[in-house]
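Module 6 notes. Inverse folding takes a fixed backbone as the condition and produces residue identities as the prediction. Think of it as a translation problem where the source language is geometry and the target language is the twenty amino acids. Below is one complete input and output pair. Work through it position by position during the lab.
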């Protein structure tokens, strides 16, 4: 019985890793769609978001089987319940990558001067998502804490972009719509970072029984 349970837990790790990879692909494609102004890349983000939704349902079904058939207790119960929380945040990451892709269909080429910081935000959030999921699989608390600390980098980049856009509106009010669109994109990346932190905090709960909001 325990061997079968361990096999199902290993399958849970595999499926979470696959869902994390889909989230990473969606984030990367969304920023590429922005930088290259390529509608076909936006379509790829929407397609990947659909796959993320499917994977969420698959993992949810697996977790329910583990809960109902195996009736886990203690740490095993925390592992399964944390996975259910994690996939909710990962699904939201897919949604926000789609939101970014949707805005890129309407924003012009003026964003180029902000491309370095937007690209860095995307890079950091991809890394945070990857490491938050990996920390669950490897049970690595040090990696959990690194994800939480790295959120400061994303927040600082968002603040820099916001400050520059406010200054731009002050100089030229005709840039208002562009500034709002780009600020929304930066905000979505900032929120993706927050979701990665949420995932890391649920990993910490699965390992220690303590949640930061407790």
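Target side of the pair, the amino acids:
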């Amino acid at each position: 019985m325990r061997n079968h349970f361990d096999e199902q837990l290993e399958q849970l790790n595999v499926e979470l890793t696959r869902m994390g990879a889909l989230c990473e692909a969606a984030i990367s494609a969304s920023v590429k769609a922005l930088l290259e102004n390529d509608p076909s890349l936006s379509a790829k983000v929407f397609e990947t978001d659909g796959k993320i939704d499917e994977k969420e349902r698959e993992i949810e079904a697996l977790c329910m089987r583990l809960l109902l058939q195996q009736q886990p207790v203690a740490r095993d119960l925390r592992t399964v319940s944390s996975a259910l929380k994690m996939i909710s945040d990962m699904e939201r990451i897919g949604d926000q990558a789609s939101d970014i892709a949707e805005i890129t269909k309407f924003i012009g080429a003026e964003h180029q001067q902000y491309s370095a910081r937007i690209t860095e935000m995307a890079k950091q959030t991809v890394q945070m998502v990857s490491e938050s999921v990996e920390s669950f699989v490897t049970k690595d608390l040090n990696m959990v804490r690194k994800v939480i600390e790295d959120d400061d980098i994303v927040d600082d980049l968002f603040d820099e972009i916001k400050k520059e856009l406010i200054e731009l509106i002050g100089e030229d009010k005709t840039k208002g719509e562009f500034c709002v669109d780009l600020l929304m994109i930066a905000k979505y990346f900032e929120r993706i970072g927050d979701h990665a932190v949420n995932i890391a905090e649920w990993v910490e709960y699965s390992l220690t029984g303590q949640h930061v909001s407790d």
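Reference fact for the lab report: Helices lie at 2-36, 39-70, 74-104, 115-138, 141-171, 176-208.
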